[in-house]
Amino acid sequence: METAQNVIDLLSQKYKSRISVLTNTLENKFCSILDTKNGTIFSVSCESLFVFKDSKNNFWSTTPKSFIYNNQKHYPTEGQEYTSKNGAKYTFTNKEAVLKRAVAYFEKFIDPCYGIKIANEKFIIYESLDKTKFLALNLQKFKARMFSKVDTYLSFN
User: Fold this and answer.
1) What is the pLDDT of residue 157?
2) What is the DSSP string of 65-127?
3) Spatial distance between the Cα atoms of 43 and 45, rounded to a whole number of angstroms
């Protein structure tokens, strides 16, 4: 039950825009979370098959009854690893280990400011102790036409 709750927690976070959460909404038997920039994916099927694939096409999966590898049927056990001709590694393990790997990867992309739009950022620097002379710095990505009278600005990317 704890594993199911951890999966729900992982899939229900608010992520940065590069992360997509996919599910079949009718029964919620198939759920995935995908990094659209590099193809890293975590997928859960019927609460029994857990798969995590990283950006280098290495796979970690719960142990299936059998699978085809090099045109032969294999019956893997937990802890076995197979390496394909192209260098991708397939590792068979338990649900918790696959989930732990997925959480470690995707938690970097949780957006704590999800839904909050920053309208203006400003630094105010006071030149005197009585706070009568000050310099206000607007942080922008570009110098807009409406700020044509601003002599100095800071830009960041």
Assistant:
1) 41
2) S-EEETTEEE---TT-EEE-TTS-EEEEE-HHHHHHHHHHHHGGGB-TTTT-----EEEEEES
3) 7
Query: Which residue, chain included where needed, has tokens 């970097």?
Result: 108
Tell me the backbone φ, ψ of residue 15, rounded to 5 degrees.
-105, 165
- Whole-Å CA distances, 10 to 15, 33, 90, 99, 118: 10, 9, 23, 9, 26
**42: nearest Cα among 102, 110, 107:** 102
Token pair listed for 60: 């970690």
Name 7's Cβ contacts closer than 8 Å, sequence gap at least 6. 31, 44, 47, 99
Cβ-based burial of 121 (10 A; exposed 0-12, middle 13-18, buried ≥19):
exposed
Q: Which amino acid is at 94?
A: N
**pTM of the predicted model, to two decimals?**
0.69
**Six-digit token pair at 100?**
């732990």
Residues of the chain with pLDDT under 50: 143, 156-157
Longest dimension (CA), the chain: 81
